[in-house]
Amino acid sequence: MKIATYNVNGINGRLPVLLKWLNETEPDIVCLQELKAPQEKFPEKAIQDLGYHAIWNGQKSWNGVAILSRTDEVQEICRELPGDEEDIQSRYLEAMVAGIHVCCLYLPNGNPAPGPKFDYKLRWFERLTTHAAELLASGKPVVLTGDYNVMPTELDVYKPERWHEDALFRPEVRQAFKTLVDQGWTDAIRKLYPDQTIYTFWDYFRNAYGRNAGLRIDHFLLSPSIAPRLTAAGVDSAVRGWEKTSDHAPVWIELSDE
């Protein structure tokens, strides 16, 4: 089984890129972030025409997440991260797909830091960590994936010395990610490639993609009951070079059968 995560940076504006990638790679389950489309503007028919079931949590102009499945129905569990009833940002979606508990997330950027946006990011991280502990306690096979907006280590960022004051790399955020992983999650990319420079995002400016001046901010965390099934992982970095593409590239893992 192949599972992918992809921050599309506007699903309607990038729809030709998304459909081309889906058609070429045929992942079984896909988590999308940053739809930037209200609920009624999600391109459901175009997705269905490629053979995918879909659920989504849209929001006008900003945020938005979706879960697609090529083989099984997507059974929605929740569309809000527990812990703050007043949080109206569409950043989380949770479903059961093919026997796997799939959690799709778009963690806040947090800039400028320090400030209210950074505080919101840290609170969101705390809520995620609390919920993740409950998911682990269930013993279910859980995949916690999406755009985390954090580079966990200096290996995950081009020229880390330039990023120490950024909300994606501040020590508080890196510690929050470490605290989450230390609950018992497996970082799929680092499990298979512990020392390799791997990026998932390249800015549109200063020829970042051409220079490979990137960041690794899109992550797969696997629960102990599913981590042993991990057989492969990678980044479809060539997609970042396509015309009118997102500033992120799709990230994927492959799991063996139970």
Automatic annotation (TrEMBL):
Its cofactor is Mg(2+); Mn(2+). InterPro entries: AP_endonuc_1 (IPR004808), AP_endonuclease_F1_BS (IPR020847), AP_endonuclease_F1_CS (IPR020848), Endo/exonu/phosph_ase_sf (IPR036691), Endo/exonuclease/phosphatase (IPR005135), ExoIII-like (IPR037493). It comes from the Bacteria. GO terms for biological process: DNA repair. The active site is at residues 106, 147, 248. The record marks 248 as: Interaction with DNA substrate. GO terms for molecular function: DNA binding; double-stranded DNA 3'-5' DNA exonuclease activity; endonuclease activity; metal ion binding. The record marks 149 as: Transition state stabilizer. Pfam families: Exo_endo_phos (PF03372). Probably binds two magnesium or manganese ions per subunit. Residues 4-248 form the Endonuclease/exonuclease/phosphatase domain. Keywords: Hydrolase, Magnesium, Manganese, Metal-binding. The record marks 218 as: Important for catalytic activity. This is Exodeoxyribonuclease III.
